Amino acid sequence: MKPDWSCLKDVKIIDVSQLLPGPHATTLLMQLGAQVIKVEQPGSGDSSRMLGNAVFAQFNRGKRSIALNLKDPADKAAFLELVRDCDAVVEGFRPGVMQRLGLGYEALAQVNPAIVMCSISGFGQTGPYAAHAGHDLNYLAMAGYWSIPVQVEDKIARPKVRLSDYAASAYAALSLSVAIMSARQQGIGQHLDVSVHDAVLSWTAHMAWLARGFEDNPLASPTVLPENDIFQTRDGRYLAMGILENKFWVTLGLLLGDEFPALRDERLAQRMSRFGHKQEVNDLLKQVFLSRTLAQWSQVFAGHDLPFSPLLNACELFDDPHVQARGTVREVPEERAISVGFPVKFSLGLPEPRATVPALGEYDLERFKAGF
């Protein structure tokens, strides 16, 4: 049995948020030992319920659900009763909504001075864009995600996952941990203003700064690495070659230079010299990797110290021996879904959260008062 050591084991968090950032943030804290009460609108619940059970389960497994209409005086009073005995409230409405409901930070602090309120919104609680509508793609666009050229033949394409939402949820979880510990020490809570745009901007800003001035010639930007790219193989699959350090280019030349002598060209021997021949280097590697299938390249590179990876498809991913060995992802056969654990291994272990997906309104206030 794993030791119950987590410093969050007696922390209670009210989650009034929906979709991804807020629910993911509270899930992270729950995996670290916190108890999460999910407050949902009666009848409809979290909007992600409409996207299917698997989508809702992804970010809400292990929580307890209570259905409250925050516009109703009786339910609002019940919500404040929950606040009295909890450490934090996480909400994801547009700025001003909680205040209009009479549930802004000041109102919550009157009930519980040590409460931490975490507001996650697209552009934050202040600023000229605060009231703007938006989703992940909008925040990426406004944070300069596509202003950074990274490939010789760069493309504007939608990211495969909701990057900005995950950035915000991670910062929210980290900030909540610190704020809750501070509130317990000092007896005074605070209001956390988490902007999804701010979160992803903190990821993009450095690279965007380097890319300034190369709008007319993006290939010349120092952010474009010709040998650090995705390449197609003969069978239509793809591989990633992440060459950054020069030693990997040398290894590639030693391994394949007899067949492709250009890999040993003295003009391309150093990283900075390759920067002067970006198109040539990228075209050379395209030619090289089109000469064999992905499976053949996996055999060629096996046992060699090279940053090579096949681009796995969805089935290959979950059969991958490293994914299985690490145990972060577990299949839930009865739900035809997966459960994703906290992605950091603690040597003392982590508490096992509830594995069930909450039914809408499965708890009531009296049951919460009686304890979990």
Automatic annotation (TrEMBL):
**Which Gene3D superfamilies does UniProt cross-reference here?**
Crotonobetainyl-coa:carnitine coa-transferase, domain 1, formyl-coa transferase, domain 3
Q: Which UniProt keywords apply?
A: Transferase
Q: What InterPro entries does the entry give?
A: CoA-transferase_III (IPR050509), CoA-Trfase_fam_III (IPR003673), CoA-Trfase_III_dom3_sf (IPR044855), CoA-Trfase_III_dom_1_sf (IPR023606)
GO MF annotation list: transferase activity
In terms of Pfam families, this protein maps to: CoA_transf_3
- PANTHER family reported for this sequence: ALPHA-METHYLACYL-COA RACEMASE, SUCCINYL-COA--D-CITRAMALATE COA-TRANSFERASE
The molecule here is called CoA transferase
Q: Which organism is it from?
A: Pseudomonas vranovensis
